[in-house]
Every structure is written in structure tokens, then in C-alpha cells.
Amino acid sequence: MSMNGTLRRQAIHAAKTGNWAEAATLNKQILEQHPEDTSAFNRLGIAYVQLGEINKAKKAFKEALKLDQTNIIAKKHLDKLENNQELAAPSFAPLHFIEEPGKTKTVDLHRLANKQTLEKLAVGKSCELKQKNRYISVEVDGMYIGALPEDISFRLGKLIANGNRYSCTVRSANGKSCSVYIKEMFSHPKNKGVQSFPGNKNAIAQLQDIDESYLIHDDIPMEIVDTDRDIERSLDDMGTDDIEE
Question: What's the pLDDT score for residue 201?
């Protein structure tokens, strides 16, 4: 693989994992070698938005349009920025929710917050999971938006108590419903053999519900995970006390 190809993959990976400072650096390195790369300008613009560097983001998208006036991706992003100048950073968070069997799950929240709160949520916004007595609440910037269903709360509560760590992101939201995308970021040895989200062990990761207006030119590659050899243990085998009722 060429050096440019390696940098491109690294830049896409950095964006996919939300490491926006690294994504900006890598795309700038690509542009130093290939100043005509419109895709790199698009990725750079999105990284700058996430870093709150709105003027730099606009400049990056404008550079892409100078090279290609028909570049739909750059035009859509630039239009959004120009029409929302009061916003510190319009949400261009990764909308490529990669389904990885056993490690990720899209969950519809229960005990929802009020309509006004839900309508303000931006897709891609990071959430915080907080353990309560009978469920796990979900918060965005310290604001309660809903709770995980009790069965998922119970399972994740035990896994978290044993050391697992998870990321949570708003996947969809309107005034009547809200779903979040939860991903296992670290599995503690105490939880060996226990899947966070049991399901079809032969499933292949897929890209779902992609909003075309936010797509980067270069698709983020799918991840394929082989879980055929996983041995699923019961939660009762984990040796932790039950979550407080």
C-alpha cells in the first residue's frame, strides 16, 4: 500500500473513532503530498467542525469546491455552516454506525425526557451512561434524555461493575422517540466469554441508516468480526453481586 493510501486509511479511522485532532493532522499531511485531493479537504473540514474551528472548516470545504465545483459533499457541508453561523459546531459526528455482533447495539430509550429536550438533540452527540437503582440513565452534557430498558440496564450494569467500558452516541431523535448506539470499548478479563449484546454469532457488520447529507466521499470500511468461536457464559457465572434493585 502506498504512503498516501496508508494515511488515508489512518485518517478515516481517526474520524470513525472520533479522534478529530489526529484526523485533521493526517488529512493535512495528505494534502501536503496531494493538494488536489478533494476528499482529504472534505475530511479536514469535518474534523475542523468537530474541533470548533468553523472558519478553518469553511476554508477546507471552499478549497474542495475550487478543485471541483460539482463536489456535492463540500457544498452541502459549507451550506450548513453558512446557514448556521451561530452554532459553535454543527454536528458532523460519525453517522456510520457500524454493527459489530456482540459488541454494539442500537437501543430505543425508555423513560424519555420531555419533547423540547429531545428535539434539541443532535445525531452523533456523545452520551454518558449513569447507573441508577433499577436502570441506567442516559445523559447528554449533563442533561437527562432517557434510560436504557431494564433488561439491557441489568446486563450492562453487571458488566460495567466488573470493569467493562462503553461509548454511547445519539443515533436518532425527535420529539417522540430517541435511540442510542452503544459500543463496547473495553472488555474486562472478569467478563471473559460474556457478550455485551448476545445475538446472531454469524452476523457481518453492516453500515446502516446513513444520512447522505453527511457522507464523506470515502466510505468508512466495514468491519467483519468472527464470533463463531465465542463461548457465551451466563451472567450468573461472572461472580458479581446483582445490581441493586
Answer: 39
Pure H helices in 125-202: 150-161
Q: For residue 110, with 0-12 CB atoms within 10 Å meaning exposed, 13-18 middle and 19 or more buried, which class applies?
A: middle
The low-confidence residues of the chain, meaning pLDDT below 50, are: 1, 85-95, 200-245
DSSP-assigned states of every residue in 84-134: -TTSSS-------EE--TBTEEEEE-BS---HHHHHT--TT-EEEEEE-SS
| Secondary structure (3-state) at 184 | strand
Q: Does one domain contain both 152 and 176?
A: yes
Q: Can you give the residue range of the structural domain that contains 118?
A: 97-214+223-236
Q: Any residues with CB less than 8 A from the CB of 179 and at least 6 apart, and which? A: 106, 107, 108, 109, 170, 171, 172, 173
pTM of the model: 0.50
With the C-alpha atoms ordered 223, 164, 138, 134, is the resulting torsion angle positive or negative? Answer: positive
Structural domain count, the chain: 2
Enter the C-alpha cell of residue 169.
Answer: 452516541
- pLDDT value at residue 20: 83
